[in-house]
Amino acid sequence: MARGDLTDHEWSLTSPLLPPERGRWARPVGDNRLFLNGMPYVLCTGCPWRDTHERYGEWNSVCVRFRRWVEQGVWDALLQTLMDLGLTDNW
């Protein structure tokens, strides 16, 4: 686990709030935790999506999932739930 990645406790809180991903055509589904760790990496470092570290998977997959979650309102729901639980100070 790299610095800034979700701990097991943080993952246990957030994983139920994320939509399940289905494989498209013959492509395998990537791990939501892996992608979720990659999204703040890009946002915090300010690097282009293409420069996402390879430990987070294919840069395009991380970017596409981020955009899909924005469009689906996943980030808004996630933040609201964390606020309701009183956990936003630590994030």
Provide keyphrases for this structure.
91 residues; mainly alpha
Gross morphology is globular
Number of helices, where a helix is a run of at least 4 consecutive DSSP H or I residues = 4
Q: In sequence order, what are the helices and strands, one letter per element?
A: HHHH
Fraction in beta strands:
under 5%
Uncertain stretches: none
Overall average pLDDT:
84
Report Rg: 13 Å
Largest sheet: none
**Can you count the beta strands?**
0
Short synopsis of the structure:
This protein has 91 residues and is mostly helical. The protein has four helices and no strands. It has helices at residues 8-14, 32-45, 59-72, 74-84.
Task: Describe what this molecule looks like in 3D.
By secondary structure, this protein is an all-alpha fold. The chain has a domain at 30-90. 51% of the residues lie in helices and 0% in strands. The model has no long low-confidence stretch (mean pLDDT 84).
Q: What order do the helices and strands come in, and which of them pair?
A:
Layout (H helix, E strand, L loop, with lengths): L7 H7 L17 H14 L13 H14 L1 H11 L7
Helix pairs in contact: 2-3
